[in-house]
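ARCHIVE CARD
Drawer: 12
Card no.: 0347
Subject: one protein chain, sequence and derived structure
Cross-reference: see card 0346
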Amino acid sequence: MNKKVAFRTLGCRLNQFETDALVSKFDKNNYTIVDFDSKADAYIINTCTVTNQGDKKSRQEINKALRKQNRSLVIITGCMVNNHLHKFDHTAENVYYIENKQKSSIFNLIDAHYKGETFHPVKSSFDQFTYEPASKTLHTRAMIKIQDGCDNFCTFCIIPKVRGRAISRPIEDIINNIKEVIKFGFKEIILTGVNIGRYEYEGVNFESLVEKILNIDGEFRVRISSIEPDGFGDKLIELFKYPKLMPHLHLCLQSGSNKVLLKMRRMYNIQSFLKMTNKIKTTYPDFNLTTDLIVGFPEETENDFQQSIEIVNQIGFSHIHTFKYSIREGTRAASLIQISEKTKNERSRIIHEQAAQSKTNYYKSLIGKEQTVLIESIANKTAKGYGDLYVPVRFKTNDIETNQFKCVRIIGIKEGRNPYLIGEEL
């Protein structure tokens, strides 16, 4: 039919996986994938609602598509739909709102529309895991969805409402998905989900699943996406001895104060978090730890905030994704005494400064060491990619292709707003 489809994805890597799977499905069926700012026959916006900022950015992208719509289809999906379905205008022509459980049916919806057929996503057999392995994606790495939903019910989080209760993908489906993307030529896979450490399927937990994945034949490497600190134990730390498992974890700290963690209903305390990170760093000194941190949580005192700063300095995260607390309707934290926006902004500024210094310190510690870089792009004889430690590296080269591994020695860093390591070929 020579139809053009454009995508916009906001939020987490789970959303990215689901978009990539849809991109591949459209590509296999002879649709043309175009930039979101281009003219298209269908615009698909995969939204985020985890914070007020996520809602705001999602609305902006939805409005962009609606302004360009003309006779095009506009498909709005993702967590914002689950959270605010009743607030959308359901009278607009050729605009569809698809909840997360039916997201994998979007191709069938659009394809049926342009064939003059009728398709009802809610009545279909599609579910959270009905995605084909993606041969064409919007990313260099292949993301593999292993789990969806969450049972933790943190007091600030709306995810259980918009993603549902925890559910794990069958092991055989995961293994087959990985084998397929390796055949497609992907050299790096990322395990993703809402709360991947809670993976449990027929007696196999997350650590055992990772071990099975690491024993798959082929030239590829594995990364673990964001994970809760209580989602694994010593076995996973031992698995980082496998050459295929990259030495980086994004551990969701959220606060350096035990008092605040308790109010958040987190399943760990600072002592257990430090014990874990100390063991990781002692076993693998260059290991890269990154984290999430919420500032301005209800009733967070100045002392609570100072404890977060102390933990940030003590651990030395190379990156901190800082969130200013957002009220989410229906969560328990919404009823607590709120912190002013001015205080949130100031605490966010301080953490950003601390995080920038921490990143610089970590990058400098890697000078003189080697990294195996997966090449993502090449321009002006400069290759760009990420090393084993999930740090950006650039180096001069004359004869190399994208999607290839290259071993380099780190000889310096480029500081600034978007710092990176400078390497030289070995």
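Annotation on reverse: The chain has twelve helices and 20 strands. The chain has a mean pLDDT of 93.
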